[in-house]
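## retry 2 of 3
previous attempt timed out at serialization; input unchanged, resubmitting
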Amino acid sequence: MPHRVPRPARTPRPFRPPAPLLATPLLAGALLLAAGCAAPAGGSADRAAAAPARELSAAELRAAAVTDAELGPGFTVTVIAPGHGETGPDGGRETADKPVCQPLLDAVAPAAGPAKAARASASPAPVSAVPYAETDLSVALAADPSGSLYGGLLGYRGDRAARLQAELEGLFAPCAEFSSTAPPPPADRSRGATRTGHRLSRNDTPTPEGADAATGFTLTNESGAVVLAQRAVMARVGPALVVFSTVGVGAEPAPVPDERVVRHQVAKLRAAQKG
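## retry succeeded, writing output
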């Protein structure tokens, strides 16, 4: 389930929604949720009366990315070329100590290349969690560089976007605290595996106008002396997900993703789906 928290020796990436959890009994109930169901307390509720939206082609999804001109002075938008910003070929999979939390790690630090494709094909879900189309982008804020965002537009078939968001809602309790182990980087196999502590928490997030639902969260990476934190907002717009995240380092918390960027992106995507 574009945009992910920076990790040691890895390139920052935007957050991707969790992979399917159909084989996890703890979250089986969450998988039955669909558009129109209420989110847990602290989150936002689905807009049951939202108008039907069509699935966009890959080109249409890319064209629906917000632009500098639409955001106004002080914003610089960069649409990332496909394949850029990956973690590197077969960089190794980070493994959670709690299996239920593995999809979250796969989401924020996916392996690239063959490893990523193999993991997707091995999914037990009848419907793939891999989007059929994806556009990644970054938004730099001149007035507040620390508030710059990594983002993505993810296109899914049918009700998959709604189901993925429901799965994420089910992770807050079991994954409030967990740890993971990452193999050494391919360029330096002499280094040992890296043990990392994580904390996952929900952020109260209003649903932007035009979105069906929204979920906000913060995920930390506590592998060294400096704690990294990623704060993300995931808004569902019809069969697509809009994800934006910021990064905090050490004592500096991750800023709230700029509401103007999220609002403009949701509005543009919804308009494209109605076109």
